[in-house]
Automatic annotation (TrEMBL):
Pfam families: Asp_protease (PF09668). GO terms for molecular function: aspartic-type endopeptidase activity. The lineage of its organism: Eukaryota, Fungi, Fungi incertae sedis, Mucoromycota, Mucoromycotina. The keyword Hydrolase applies. Gene3D superfamilies: Acid Proteases. GO terms for biological process: proteolysis. It comes from the Eukaryota. The keyword Protease applies. Residues 92-174 form the Aspartic peptidase DDI1-type domain. This is Aspartic peptidase DDI1-type domain-containing protein. Keywords: Aspartyl protease, Hydrolase, Protease. PROSITE patterns: ASP_PROTEASE. It comes from Rhizopus delemar.
Length: 183
């Protein structure tokens, strides 16, 4: 039953492929799949039993600092496991890899390849690309806010409007110029 559900759901197959490659390899072999599942259930049961036994042992001497530390660690591990299970239920896509979308565009008439970030609040352009497409003369350095995303970066300035062509569509976009990051 579980095997059929996984086979019928592309997202579930991807999750199994990423998290349990051996189970994924057994999807087309019902007997092997069942064997792996039974083994996992058995291991989970044994793990749960050993954790419960450990917790009971630790609770025999709750004033022992080492026992208190281990009890807190077990509680933390349980909270992490519950949090991960909740994430699996409400946003399973967060456990899969994401393909990046690149498109061919023309910025100020010059062909470029652009990364599409559907969650971005602003359109950024590097100093090198701005120079290559002839837009550095339009950078207004009075606008130098912080760009915040995964990390923070100083914005060198803003190009208030510049032409971009995406396929047959021609539009004007504002850009912010990113300051180069050096390691």
């Amino acid at each position: 039953m579980i095997r059929n559900q996984v086979l019928a759901d592309a997202n579930a197959r991807e999750q199994v492929r990423l998290t349990q490659p051996n189970l994924y390899d057994a999807l087309n072999d019902p007997a092997r799949f069942r064997g792996i599942m039974m083994e996992q259930v058995s291991q989970l049961s044994q793990s749960s039993n050993s954790q419960q036994a450990e917790l009971l042992r630790l609770q025999q001497d709750p004033d022992n600092p080492a026992n208190q530390k281990r009890i807190l660690e077990l509680i933390r591990e349980e909270a992490i496991e519950e949090n991960m299970n909740l994430a699996w239920e409400i946003s399973p896509e967060s456990f899969t890899s994401v393909n990046m979308l690149y498109i061919k565009v023309k910025i100020n008439g010059v062909e470029q390849v652009a990364l599409v970030d559907s969650g971005a609040a602003i359109t950024t352009i590097s100093e090198a690309i701005a120079e290559e497409v002839g837009l550095t003369r339009l950078i207004d350095r009075r606008f130098q806010p912080q760009a915040v995303g995964i990390g923070t970066q100083t914005v060198a300035g803003k190009i208030h409007s510049a032409p971009i062509e995406i396929g047959d569509s021609k539009i004007e976009l504002p850009y912010v110029e990113k300051t180069p990051v050096y390691d």
